[in-house]
Write a structure and sequence with these properties.
The chain is α/β, with parallel strands linked by helices. 30% of the residues lie in helices and 17% in strands. α9 runs antiparallel to α12 and α9 crosses α13. The structure holds ligand MGD (2 copies), iron/sulfur cluster and molybdenum atom.
């Protein structure tokens, strides 16, 4: 334990738990990281996949005496080439962590935890759901909700959706709203496909690759090989990110616009391409319904204006536009950060229109990529098969938050961090108004603080199931080892609750394999995706409508046209209006509502060595890389503010402050600061510990997603 604070907490917790029985392993029993002394049993090998990021690396695990000895990246995986990253490997440490909670617990009114049995936990949950059903009947659906994801496997997600349906609820919140949903919704609207329109190996056929706010090397490390291969095939890689990252090392040129101004860069590009006549009008009209709207909607975005807003020089801007105009095949990779700004809808739409204008959507080496693509459909079809169609409108998290605030939610399955949402403290207050909150997790984290019931979850390798990755690939995993104590995989908990409540409709399946076979039998797009086929391969691509069918890869526009109902996209959208509406993100220092007391632009993002907000923060192996809560400040800004390296500051926004240490670096632009999205307050590892950045981010939304980037901030020296 690194310091007194966490030691005290840990001992307090241990005492409370031991009073009810040993719920967590004692620290002394924790095994040394990365080394398990062999006990002499036979060694077996089995395939699995990493449950963390969407690269979905597959591996071979060597297992002996019920312990995983090692995991080795699977060289047969076409997408990863056998790579894995350290945060994926850290799951071995997490599984054996001394901090892991392995028994269900009930949170008493006085804040103490009482250990309960798994059966009691299931009964208690089913009882609560039944009470909602008895009281509200058909109208009770909106009183029960679940926040996803269920990273461990697709079957867990299906099992949970079915549990909701036992009380008529369809209110499962995907992480998407705080992820790339603005981009994915705009791709859906304009291209007819809710994710990337092509696959990463198509980069090899492109002349130009634009990583638009996409920090590929830090965040999908195994994909570094695709950038390398694309370059070897002659592609030029252009990277647009105000901040220098590891991805900067892999690109031919980086452009560093002011954060939040990407839309203007793209609007200016359309204007310039039109002005230069660098497009094929027939092809452009084939894809853009109201092509005639493009010129008037972009005309005010002259080179001068683009330079003024982005603070790039006119030469830089021109060289970017020229590179786009000369390239015959361009793939644009949309990063998540563009979806985390309130002008994200306009920015994403403009970039997609730019691709259409240059005829860069349909064909080889062309298209759009995003992060978090690849979720196979079919799950909801299976749920409907058992429970009938349910047309209740789905809430977004904003509505759910209001529902909780009004005390209209009775049961919340909190299977995510609440800290992923902006104004996280406000979200927490809303959750505190829900009388019964079930949290499935591994550690006593912030979520457990607001929970009524803690259900100890199984890690991926402790259960079977299939997982999906960015390239629409589905991978299968066997159960490698037995989970400790009473830990259960999510599918099991949700099944046990669901079967208890609604044995008539809730299907009886004994394991994910059985549920997956139902999926294959009952859902057309899964017909060719048998468990056997997944077992035999590292990466089978969904959908497969026939047994033995070949996998479709590459562009989704194999028919030579967009997949929207009309085969076209529009400039002036009925719902979202025109692209000429561009404005600064809400709260941005240069925006109309910007405040002069908060003159710096706050940007934040993820780091190579952490997965999201929770798990890896509990791994010592990751703590060794972590720098905790730092804020990167440009030397010029630091000088203006009288700050020196390692100074302690309060990073303040309209919502509140967060204590950071100052890292002075040219990697950020003057006037902008950067702080990591990861870290958590409850980790016992000091290196990873901090309040959440979302605590101080205002609750700003575009129409689709909750936003985080580009709000105004200031640094106050402590
Ligand atoms: N290590 C690690 N990898 C991950 C994840 C993780 O938690 N950890 N999460 C995965 C998930 S779920 C997702 S969605 C992806 C997200 O992948 P990304 O979208 O690439 O991730 P972010 O870190 O949010 O943002 C990327 C970059 O946007 C830059 N940026 C900030 N503001 C602006 C701006 O105004 N304009 C431009 N052009 N760039 C800006 C930031 O400097 C940052 O480098 O990563 C995935 N990979
Ligand atoms: N400020 C800021 N906020 C962000 C982002 C950002 O860049 N900056 N990124 C956004 C993005 S892109 C995303 S995708 C979201 C992610 O946000 P979340 O999806 O909420 O991510 P986590 O914090 O990892 O929380 C996941 C929860 O699932 C549990 N869990 C993990 N694995 C398993 C499992 O195998 N079984 C079960 N039963 N439970 C499991 C963990 O214990 C944890 O409680 O955050 C978003 N929020
Ligand atoms: S790159 Fe992603 S899937 Fe691969 S090991 Fe790392 S976290 Fe896991
Ligand atoms: Mo995400």
């Amino acid at each position: 334990m690194p310091d007194g604070y966490s030691r005290r907490n840990f001992l307090k917790l241990s005492a409370a738990l031991l009073a009810g029985g040993a719920a967590i392993a004692s620290p002394g029993k924790a095994r040394a990281i990365g080394y398990v002394p062999p006990q002499g049993g036979p060694v077996t090998e089995s395939k699995g996949y990493c449950p963390f990021c969407q690269v979905r690396c597959t591996y071979t695990a060597r297992v002996q005496d019920g312990k995983i000895l090692s995991v080795t990246g699977d060289a047969g995986n076409y997408w990863t080439g056998g790579a894995m990253c350290p945060k994926g490997m850290s799951i071995l440490e997490l599984m054996d962590s001394p901090f892991r909670i392995t028994e269900p617990m009930f949170h008493e009114a006085d804040g103490s935890w009482r250990r309960i049995s798994y059966e009691e936990a299931v009964a208690m949950t089913a009882e609560r759901l039944k009470a909602v059903r008895d009281k509200y009947g058909d109208k009770g659906g909106n009183r029960v909700a679940l926040t996803m994801p269920l990273w461990d496997c697709l079957e867990s997600e299906i099992a949970a959706l079915m549990t909701l349906r036992t009380v008529g609820s369809v209110q499962a919140m995907p992480p998407g709203e705080t992820c790339v949903s603005t981009a994915s919704n705009m791709l859906g609207l304009m291209l007819g496909v809710n994710s990337g329109s092509t696959q990463v190996d198509e980069l090899l056929k492109a002349e130009t690759v634009v990583l638009w706010g996409a920090n590929v090397n830090d965040l999908y490390p195994p994909y570094t090989r695709w950038l390398k291969a694309a370059r070897e095939h002659g592609a030029r890689i252009l990277y647009i990110d105000p901040r220098r990252t590891r991805t900067s090392l892999w690109c031919d040129r980086q452009f560093r616009p002011q954060p939040g101004t990407d839309g203007v860069l793209a609007l200016g590009a359309i204007r310039w391409v039109l002005e230069q006549g660098a497009y094929d009008e027939e092809r452009a009209r084939f894809q853009i319904e109201d092509f005639e709207n493009l010129a008037p909607q972009t005309e005010k975005f002259t080179l001068e204006r683009v330079a003024e807003v982005t603070k790039l020089s006119q030469e830089e801007i021109l060289s970017f536009y020229q590179a786009l105009a000369e390239s015959r095949r361009t793939i644009v990779w949309l990063g998540g950060s563009l979806s985390r700004q309130t002008n994200g809808i306009t920015t994403a739409r403009t970039i997609i229109l730019l691709q259409a204008l240059r005829d860069n959507l349909i064909g080889e080496g062309k298209g759009m990529l995003t992060f978090q693509s690849g979720k196979p459909g079919g799950g909801e079809e299976l749920v409907d098969h058992f429970f009938g169609e349910n047309k209740t409108p789905k809430m977004n998290f904003r509505r759910l938050r209001m529902t909780m605030e009004k005390k209209n939610l009775d049961v919340l399955f909190l299977n995510s961090s609440y800290r992923r949402n902006p104004d996280a403290l406000g979200v927490r207050k809303a959750i505190e108004k829900v009388p019964f909150v079930v949290h499935m997790g591994f550690f006593l984290d912030e979520e457990s603080e607001v929970s009524t019931l803690f259900i100890p979850a199984a890690f991926g390798p402790e259960s079977q199931g299939c997982g999906y990755g960015n390239e629409n690939q589905v991978a299968w995993r066997e159960k490698l080892v037995q989970a400790p104590g009473s830990c259960v995989p999510a599918w099991q908990f949700y099944r046990d609750v669901g079967r208890r409540l609604d044995p008539e409709r809730y299907p009886d399946f004994k394991d994910p394999e059985a549920l997956c076979r139902m999926l294959q039998q009952l859902v057309p797009s899964w017909k060719g995706l048998s468990v056997e086929r997944m077992r035999a391969s590292s990466t089978v691509t969904w959908p497969l409508f026939e047994e033995g069918a070949g996998e479709r890869t590459g562009t989704v526009f194999s028919e030579g046209k967009l997949l929207t109902p009309t085969g076209k996209m529009t400039v002036a959208d009925r719902v979202f209006g025109g692209i000429d509406r561009w404005d600064y993100p809400k709260g941005h220092p240069a925006a109309r509502d910007g405040k002069k007391e908060f003159p710096l632009i706050l940007t934040q993002g993820k780091q190579l060595w952490h997965w999201q907000q929770t798990l890896t923060n509990f791994a010592r192996s990751m703590a060794q890389f972590s720098n905790g809560r730092f804020v990167q400040v440009n030397p010029r800004t630091a000088e203006e503010l009288g700050l020196v390296q390692n100074d302690k500051v309060m990073l303040e926004t309209v919502k509140g402050g967060l204590e950071c240490w100052v890292d002075i670096t040219e990697n950020v632009l003057p006037g902008a600061v950067f702080t990591p999205a990861n870290c958590c307050r409850t980790t016992p590892l000091a290196e990873n510990r901090s309040d959440s950045i979302c605590d101080i981010l205002p609750n700003y939304w575009d129409r689709i997603s909750a936003q985080h980037n580009c709000t105004g901030c200031r640094l106050r020296k402590l």
